Amino acid sequence: MNKPAMQNGAPPRAWTAICVWLLVALLGIGVLFRTTFTADLTAFLPKDPTEEQQLLVEQLRDGMVSRMILMGIEGADPQARAALSRSLAKQMRENDEFISVNNGEPVNQEADHAYLFNNRYLLSPAVTPDHFGTEGLHTAIGETIDLLASPAGLLVKDILPQDPTGEMATLIAQFNSGQQPRKQHGIWVARDGSRALLLAQTRALGSDTDAQEAAINHIREKFERARAEVGKQHAAASSASLILTGPGVFGVNARNTISTEASLFAIASATLIMGLLFFTYRSGMAVLLGLAPVLSGILAGTVAVSLGFGTVHAITLGFGTTMIGEAIDYAIYLFIQSGSARNSAEWARKSWPTIRLGVLTSMAGFGALLFSGFPGLAQLGLYTIAGLISAAFVTRYVLPSLLPREFVVRDLSHVGRTVQRAIDFLQKLRWILLLIFALACATLWLQRDQLWQAELGALSPVSQADKDLDEKLRKDIGAPDVRYLVVVKGKSLEDVLQAAEKVAPRLDTLVEEGQLAAYETPTRYLPSRAAQRVRLASLPSAEQLQARLGQAVQDLPVQTSVLAPFVSSVDALARVNADEQTREQRLLTRKDLAGTSMAMATDALLIEQKDVATALLPLTANAEHVIDAERMRAELARSGVERVYFIDLKAETDKLYNGYMHEAVLLALYGMLAMTIMLGFTIRSAAGLARVMIPLVIAVLSVAAFFAATGERMTILHLVGLLLIVAVGSNYALFFAQPPKDEHGNPTAIAPTTLASLVFANVTTVIGFGVLGFSSVPILSAIGKTVGIGVILALLYAAVFSGSLRPRAANASHDSSRSTGTP
User: Fold this and answer.
1) How far apart are CA 21 and CA 313, in angstroms?
2) Burial class of 14 by CB neighbour count within 10 A (0 to 12, 13 to 18, 19+)
3) Measured in whole angstroms, how far is the alpha carbon of residue 551 from the centre of its chain?
4) What DSSP string runs through 304-335?
């Protein structure tokens, strides 16, 4: 049975290090259990975001558009699809997970009609003093009479005595101002009639992926139940299928795709790496101990961010764990270069200074991120620095004492000698590599304006086919474009309702000009109290109205006696207006919408928080699907509303992402500068500094040129990969650039075991990240290809250029004792 080396009497310092490690780990675990993890998009926001940026994140996270689910029922025949639509909608309406479910059925029709009719004079924007003047009455009644010959004639005829001025017609026209879906068998269908359509809005926030997934699963379950029930009357129902789309569906599918592929590739790479390490170490305990630096780094990084920022963003955890991936190399250097537990002290004396310098180099590079104006980047910097410090501490002071006493790795000196021969050969051909590098620089220069991806959508795993389906269903159903919104902010609901009423005429202008197809506003269902008061004040008394009607209908085919119900209704409201207390009680509130389908629409468009209220006005673009942002903002400015914003979700998202990318690139360059300065002070030699930095710069530029040449624009994930190339590659360059010295201070050849350890560390990194390059998920393939290609080039360039630039060794004796080079 293998016993840890420390059991033979570890020095007090080793025991102290182990105790400190365990104590800190226990404290860290305690902090971890109290840590708040969040996937909040505020990680992408600057510390002091603009109002538009804050609104953008609110809408992406909590907004109405993020909670929409569009459904299509395909297959079967029209009758079966209609029956399935009704059955599915009925079941969903009974489920509290959905705020609204619409399939074209006249649900709540009686309640809706009663609300509109009974409150028509409070709801109709046409109600003004002029509207109830003699000329206004003449015009309004004449237009209503003209409607008798239209398809709406039956409805108008029935209510003409109560509503001769056409307030109901005005309200209905408002609600139908946008594109309406085609109806067949009483339910919504696609333009070509090939599928039934439904539109639902979840109660859960769009950012709550778990709740969105639960809602989607319930929809599928209810559809299967509907298919079984409808199939009893319509045999064709069994061939029907359900399609779903929308932001929530995209989010759930993306998470599942990423999770599935990440798990698959993680298992594959872990199996290969563990197999390789077990073959090399010949000890299962050593393989497990090799994970200690990485796990300690993850714990330390998470705890540091939790204590420093209060919460840990998911983006920090994901990227940060990737960034400290070099920590697994530390154990490989220890195990292979020392060769056995007995030689760990010698390894610490000879090799540790080089690794320590590599750690400090990485910390200097990542330290620049701490000064970011974006919390996500600042957290990433702190996470990486804390993680690397912890991993380095464990490797240097803990692992040597925990190694099994009889631990001896496989003799890999022959691998090192083979590598040395390959290096000697490649150094003779380095002019070819220089030519390749020159071509890389030329490619980067020619493609300098096309290097970085400007659209966040490039990171989405959603296929183009799914995007096309979403666009098609959205067109068929006439749903508001998830891209465009007008947002009004205020201190209270009354403030934002009044502001929305001031904005509406400006939007009407754009609709009339064809700049805008339609828009939605909560004031159609719930006008501000101020607007309702003005409308009540516009209503004349019975005596005034009778006199005006007598003149208004003189040349119209209607008798004033027929309009007695109209006079009575108006007079009742006019009397209400005469008493302030009664008037205030009559004004509509949110409670009056209860039981109507408009209640759900109002809840979606009005958001009331502690100290602020928000009104959303979704916009439907014109046939060209484009809204002129400059013109829109100019019209909104003319409204006189102070806190009104036009939000192009796509444009604002891309703008925010570009700002994030720009700062990340800038900080990465600052990090490279910090690394260079630190290495310069440490090495104290321009030639030595060049030997370290040249391979890193060439490797990074070569990888960037590869993506430019293949037409793949780089994203934030590629940048993370480039940073990791520098972090890992700096260790390679330091080992090659600074020749080992004998006891007299004369340079010697690099030990074969040192070369072997570098190769094995490189292979594990390539396996760990390279397999991700085959993923269909952009965020996985980007970092996989970047790191997989980059670390190979970093090792190659370090061996060829660093080795050829350093002073020649005084002797080339091979180290049979497995000793390694020291800086």
Assistant:
1) 25
2) middle
3) 64
4) HHHHHHSEEEHHHHHHHHHHGGGHHHHHHHHH
Q: Quick one: angle between helices 327-338 and 716-737, nearest 10?
A: 20
Domain assignment of residue 384, yes or no: yes
How many Cβ atoms from other residues are within 10 Å of residue 130's Cβ? Answer: 12
CB contact at 8 A, 617 and 511:
no
Q: Give the SS3 label for residue 585.
A: helix
Are the C-beta atoms of residues 736 and 331 closer than 8 Å to each other?
no
- By CB atoms closer than 10 A (0-12, 13-18, 19+), residue 751 is buried
Going by their DSSP bridges, the two strands 196-202 and 68-74 should be labelled as antiparallel
Q: Which two tokens stand for residue 651?
A: 């444009």
Strand blocks (E) in 291-427: 311-313
Instruction: Determine if the pTM surpasses 0.90.
Output: no
**What is the Cα–Cα distance from 299 to 295, expressed in whole angstroms?**
6
Whether residue 2 lies inside any domain: the answer is: yes
Q: Which of 155-159, 212-216, 286-290 has the lowest mean pLDDT?
A: 155-159
N-terminal to C-terminal alpha carbon distance within the chain: 37
**What are the tens digits of pLDDT across the range 311-361?**
887 777 777 777 676 778 888 888 887 766 567 777 777 778 888 888 888
What does DSSP assign to residue 711?
T
* DSSP per residue, 768-785: HHHGGGG-SSHHHHHHHH
What are the pLDDT digits (tens) for 555-602?
A: 888 888 888 999 999 999 888 888 888 888 899 998 998 888 888 778
CB 483 within 8 A of CB 621: yes
108: helix, strand or coil: coil
Phi, psi of 679, rounded to the nearest 5 degrees: -65, -35
- Statement: residue 177 has pLDDT above 70: no
pLDDT at residue 478 tops 80: no
Helix (H, G, I), strand (E, B), or coil: what is residue 208?
coil
Dihedral sign, Cα of residue 734, residue 737, residue 740, residue 741: negative
CA 685 to chain centre: 45
CB 198 within 8 A of CB 78: no
* Residue 302 falls inside a structural domain: yes
401 lies in some domain: yes
Q: How far apart are CA 190 and CA 104, in angstroms?
A: 12
The percent of residues above 90 in pLDDT, for the chain, comes to 17
CATH number at residue 345: 1.20.1640.10
Residue numbers of the domain that contains 311: 1-34+282-410
- Number of domain units in the chain: 1
Helix (H) or strand (E) run with residue 241 in it: strand 241-245
Strand-pairing partners, residue 741, are 747
Q: What angle do CA 179, 180, 183 make, to 5 degrees?
A: 150
